[in-house]
Amino acid sequence: MDRKKALLLGDYSYPEFHPLQGVDEEISHILQDWMTVQCSENRKMLLKENLASFDLCISYCDSRKEVLSPQQTAGLLSYVSGGGGLLVLHNGITLQGRYEIAQLMGARFLRHPAAAPLSFKVTEPDHPIMEGIEPFEIQEEPYRFDFDPFTEKTLLMEYEYEGQWWPAAWSLSYGLGRVVYLMPGHNQPSFQHEGYRKLLLQAAKWAGRFPG
């Protein structure tokens, strides 16, 4: 089987809240049997010519103040619409600064209450990403979202906070490509949770159209 390649984009130098250090090791280990993971904080990797060699792009970006350039925006949109896979983890949704990217991801991040033990349940058990995924509990930031009304998405999981259930994961098609958002991922311990590791792997394989 040919080794596939994933680009993991985050922040090493000046993260606001979620450094890529440590998380990069966990994600690389989770995906090691399926793909080689290249880690970078350089947003220029989103240019069309730089994304072309990757089977999957993973966003763990952590800078709401940094807005992608028109060229970077066009590169990511072209990559996904042409058949590329995009996996957005937790704070990775902060690439939402341009409306086109928020629409690509299906939602904007709004805010979150303080981190707490959250219970997660499956809402779409027949989706390939959710195969064999059981309900789990994990210490996480309960993110709130504003959903794009024009993007058809499949809600995969919800989390419970103060007696109410909220969206926690979804998938969508964009042109010929696939996009997945997973809310968990606040820090390195999140990526050490066995239930979440399995979910992340299956989301990566689905978004990147990996066989099996």
From TrEMBL:
Which Pfam families does the protein's record reference?
ThuA (PF06283)
Entries under PANTHER family matching the protein:
GALACTOSE-BINDING DOMAIN-LIKE SUPERFAMILY PROTEIN, SECRETED GLYCOSYL HYDROLASE
Name its species: Paenibacillus brasilensis
Q: Mind telling me what this protein is named?
A: Type 1 glutamine amidotransferase
Which keywords does this chain's UniProt record carry?
Glutamine amidotransferase
Question: Keyword Phosphoprotein: yes or no?
Answer: no
| Gene3D superfamilies noted in UniProt | 3.40.50.880
InterPro entries for this protein: Class_I_gatase-like, ThuA-like
Query: Does the record's keyword annotation contain Cell division?
Result: no
- What top-level branch of life does the organism fall under? Bacteria
